Amino acid sequence: MNETLELIKSRRSVKKYKDTPVEKELIDKIVEAGTWAATGRNRQSPIILAITDKETIATLSKVNAEIMGAEGSDPFYGAPCVLVVLAD
To answer: In this structure, what DSSP letter does residue 41 have?
Structure first.
């Protein structure tokens, strides 16, 4: 438990990413962890899409920026992989 608490306390947000592709095995592990994470009312409904195609990420970034009212910015900060979570 102490290790988990220390990890939570030492977590940092990063808003600049390398353009190096993320290994598929790592993406799969992250998606699996998200799939097994607790859900509201135990609905177990999330579908997680890993997007690595640069054109698709650019399109999602543009749409997301428009929704946020921040046209021209990149809400994904240049990340080479974006996870889209869909849920009921």
So the answer is: G
Sequence-separated (6 or more) residues with CB below 8 Å from residue 59? none
Torsions phi, psi for 72 (to 5 deg):
90, -15
Task: State residue 78 phi and psi, 5-degree precision.
Answer: 75, 15
pLDDT over threshold 80, residue 14: no
Q: Which of 47, 53, 45, 67 is nearest to 21 (CA)?
A: 53
- What is the spatial distance between Cα 36 and Cα 30, in angstroms, rounded to a whole number? 10
Whether the Cβ atoms of residue 74 and residue 62 lie closer than 8 Å to each other: no
pLDDT tens-place string over residues 48-72 = 999 999 999 999 999 999 998 988 8
The C-alpha atoms of residue 33 and residue 71 are separated, in whole angstroms, by 32
